[in-house]
Specification:
Chain A is an alpha/beta fold. Helix content of chain A is 34%, strand content 15%. Chain A is globular and about 55 Å long. Chain B is an alpha/beta fold. Chain B has one domain: Thiamin diphosphate (ThDP)-binding fold, Pyr/PP domains (Rossmann fold). Chain B contains eight helices and six strands.
């Protein structure tokens, strides 16, 4: 069965805010999911944000990544710009649910631009983990898969189980984008508040640009 | 004061600006992006620049992406810049106010060259923008000054030279630069 045709469990609309999906009794560990993505991303450009940031830094410390730091909600748009500029490469956005809600319209903008090389992973945990784990509006009931489909992504699916993710990831990374993958995860061990540091955003920009364009002075 | 600025004049100026940007990038880097288009307009539709936006729909050399918000537009511009693409944002003053945090985080703190054309909807022809009775017009220049963002205002067709000048300025300063569109395009 094609990934887009499976795994999307529609939420009931009368569910109470913050009700967890039954599948989420044992949510995936975000670190484990990130390690699987890192192992298979090849030369893809990656855009982590918020709680995917610290672990991604540890897994892929010097690579084709740029973290969305200092403008929460921007990962999907930053990824879109990169995908449009570099259609020769895959772009993987490692977004959060609270973050995406801040620029929810980007779902429609991405779908409208229709970059074939963009995969939009959403780490769904129902809270603003970095600021103290306050619940996001709607909590886990918010159905981002339906939103992405409604916006016009070519494919959208939810994954609740890490073994299922392992099986589906190779196919997901080959699918024609834009693809949306809602990953039902627990809380990361670290957040940008507990694991400060890393390369400042402007330096990340300069480094990634240099890797993509290769300034003549360094060739 | 002239009544308007021809859309065709602005579009020709944008094309020249993009050509210059691509030429400069090709001289600087070994692997500039290879596209058939000249550059990108990221727009959240602006009443003042509506004839430009309408004319751009028929342009094959310029890609136009309509964004849902100015936050998105500024952030997408950042991604395009990293990938080597020339970009111009076309928004209106209300959108500038709505997206100040992204302007700060992406263009200023991120040191990403970001060139804006911002329409001053409701600007009175007989008044300087700072003296407008409309707060959305009146606060625009002071806001840009507060953030230290260089800006100039198009007051007629003779001012379109500001477009390549402030585009270059955004590259030189590695940050935002703004051309305010002080009258309607035609």
């Amino acid at each position: 069965m094609a990934p887009e045709a499976k795994a999307h469990d529609a939420q009931t609309h009368d569910a109470k805010p913050h009700d967890a999906n039954p599948h989420d009794a044992n949510p995936m560990k975000p670190e484990e999911v990130l390690r699987l993505i890192a192992a298979q991303r090849g030369t893809a450009i990656c855009v982590p944000t918020m709680t995917t940031g610290p672990e991604w830094r540890a897994i892929a410390p010097d690579d084709l990544s740029v973290g969305c730091v200092g403008f929460m909600g921007g990962a999907s748009s930053l990824g879109l710009g990169l995908a449009l500029a570099r259609p020769d490469r895959r772009v993987l956005v490692l977004d959060g649910d609270g973050s995406l809600l801040m620029q929810l319209g980007s779902l429609a903008t991405i779908a409208g631009a229709a970059p074939r090389n963009l995969v939009h992973f959403l780490f769904k945990n129902g809270v603003y983990h970095t600021s103290g784990a306050q619940g996001i509006p709607g909590g886990l009931v918010v159905d981002f898969v339906t939103m992405a489909r409604g916006a016009g992504y070519r494919a959208a699916l939810a994954v609740h189980d890490v073994e299922d993710f392992k099986k589906q990831l190779p196919e997901i990374l080959k699918m024609e984008g834009p693809v949306f993958v809602e990953l039902h995860t627990g809380l990361a061990a670290q957040t940008p508040m507990t694991a400060r540091g890393g390369v400042p955003f402007p330096e990340q920009v300069t480094k990634l640009r240099a890797k993509l364009l290769r300034p003549r002075a360094t060739t | 004061m002239p009544e308007s600025i021809p859309a065709s004049l602005i579009i020709d100026t944008l094309k020249d600006t993009f050509r210059e940007a691509r030429k400069e990038l090709a001289a600087e880097v070994a692997e500039p992006p290879q596209h058939s288009h000249l550059g990108w307009i990221l727009s959240v539709p602006d009443t003042h620049q509506k004839t430009v936006l309408a004319a751009l729909d028929k342009e094959e050399q310029i890609r136009v992406l309509t964004c849902a918000t100015e936050d998105e537009a500024a952030t997408i511009a950042g991604g395009l810049y990293i990938g080597g693409e020339p970009v111009v944002l076309m928004i209106q003053h209300a959108g500038l106010y709505a997206s100040v945090n992204t302007l700060r985080g992406v263009a200023m703190d991120g040191r990403i060259p970001t060139f804006y054309m911002i329409g001053l909807l409701s600007r009175e022809k007989d008044k300087a923008p700072r003296e407008s009775r409309h707060s959305m017009v009146r606060y625009c220049e002071p806001l840009l000054d507060t953030f230290g963002i260089p800006h100039a205002t198009l007051e007629g067709p003779d001012d379109v030279h500001y477009i390549p000048e402030y585009y270059r300025l955004s590259r030189q300063r590695k940050g935002p630069a703004v051309v305010l569109v002080g009258l309607e395009t035609a």
